[in-house]
């Protein structure tokens, strides 16, 4: 009996041992397979658009980096569209030939039936050539622009290329006043831009008599333009040029021909500040703040960025011209009226408002108060429930935080972002500003597409010396 029991126990033990051995072998094989997969995954070569990130604040390097990411995009039209900005910036930096070389490569890569992106690139080529004084090159690119007429398929787009080439000529002063009939819709525009170009030529040649004549011609063209945004834009443009050239007579003539009740709208407090008329600048800046406070009290649309931005710019102008007391008084009015803004929504709206006021508070109340406001903006951003709005709110709040805090603090906040693409964008900008190139390379090696890579490369430009928004 005992022998039989012992025999059964031995057999059972043997079965368990065999099963355990088999399971261990299977587990061992599974681990080996996982190890191979992990090794294979670790050794996967990164795509070209995930590598070659510059370890320098040099703008040219970053523009070329952005162009390289665009060229690597298998979606050719998307790549061409993304390349527009870095190519133009590269040319503006003085690397005209290099910019045109890359532009040509992208043009050749586009499908032959493409009419939109190829036309945009050709127009950019014409602009770069004109700026460099290469009129023959400009004409060649404008011919490419006009050739879009042969590729458009929709009736609504008929004559698209020819219209674009015409608009280019008008806006760059290449159409003489006699080239268009007086009843043409672009007649007055052609006169204004023609004389803008002639003024530039006379300025380069230092022809004093011709400069005076061209200012008079521009003044006449502004008089003939109907009231509206274009008339205001032209007035400001000519005053700025006259100020750059130290030509007070032209400034005086322009201001005197504007009725006093239209001067704020036509000239603006910022232009008055620029030309040294501080009393007028302060008066019109105050009017601008008060006008926008009243608008905010009646607004129903939560998209209040425009009035808030107008208030911020006016207060900044007052601070720049030494009117700190007036700026503080007006800012207090803004803060007190905010309780009655029915259009404000907690989240992205309040984040935008708080972030906009951070630099104002820094100048009026100090850095510590500004930090508190930036932290409050971060709190409001975190409460936004809409996915798309939350991303924008967090980006805005981070920028405000970075402006008044050590960069390390802002970088740590960026690392907490949940969206991988947003985290890469924000970290990319902050790490570039901090010059932490090794970390930057690691973060950006995980970009998910050439489009994302090109977008980040462009936005990093604003964090580098010489690339800031003017």
Structure description:
Helix content is 73%, strand content 0%. It has helices spanning 2-42, 59-71, 76-92, 96-109, 117-131, 135-146, 160-171, 187-205, 208-224, 229-244, 248-256, 263-266, 269-274, 278-298, 305-320, 324-337, 348-365, 367-382, 387-404, 407-415, 420-434, 437-444, 450-460. Residues 1-43 have low confidence and may be disordered. It is an all-alpha fold. The chain has a domain at 185-267. It contains 23 helices and no strands.
Give the overall form: globular
Number of helices: 23
Give the strand tally.
0
The share of residues in extended strands comes to under 5%
Summarize the helix and strand pattern as letters.
HHHHHHHHHHHHHHHHHHHHHHH
State mean pLDDT (0 to 100 scale): 89
Straight-line N-to-C gap: 99 Å
Notable characteristics:
470 residues, mainly alpha, 23 helices, disordered N terminus
Helices and strands in order:
Elements: H1 2-42, H2 59-71, H3 76-92, H4 96-109, H5 117-131, H6 135-146, H7 160-171, H8 187-205, H9 208-224, H10 229-244, H11 248-256, H12 263-266, H13 269-274, H14 278-298, H15 305-320, H16 324-337, H17 348-365, H18 367-382, H19 387-404, H20 407-415, H21 420-434, H22 437-444, H23 450-460
